[in-house]
Design brief:
Layout (H helix, E strand, L loop, with lengths): L7 H54 L3 E5 L4 E5 L1
Antiparallel strand pairs: 1-2
Length: about 80
């Protein structure tokens, strides 16, 4: 056809590709954030479990520990 009007794709190809690129980048960012959150939660859970085991071992051995807070330059008592 000689005088057919251009299609939406032909007329706005750059804008459509840019929009698809932005949406793709947002999807990747969201996926990365969700992955990071899941890893952080697993790490926090592992840390809590480790701390519980340490406290259980200290209680069983009737031990006490102390921690030095370097920025405050003071001792923190723990059990």
């Amino acid at each position: 056809m000689r005088f057919r009007p251009p299609s939406l794709w032909q007329e706005h190809r750059g804008l459509l590709l840019a929009t698809a690129g932005v949406i793709g980048a947002q999807m990747l960012t969201i996926a990365a954030l969700l992955t990071h959150r899941a890893r952080r939660r697993r790490s926090e859970l592992g840390l809590r479990e480790s701390e519980q085991r340490m406290n259980l071992a200290m209680d069983a051995a009737k031990l006490g520990i102390w921690i030095w807070d370097i920025p405050r330059d003071e001792k923190l008592n723990h059990n």
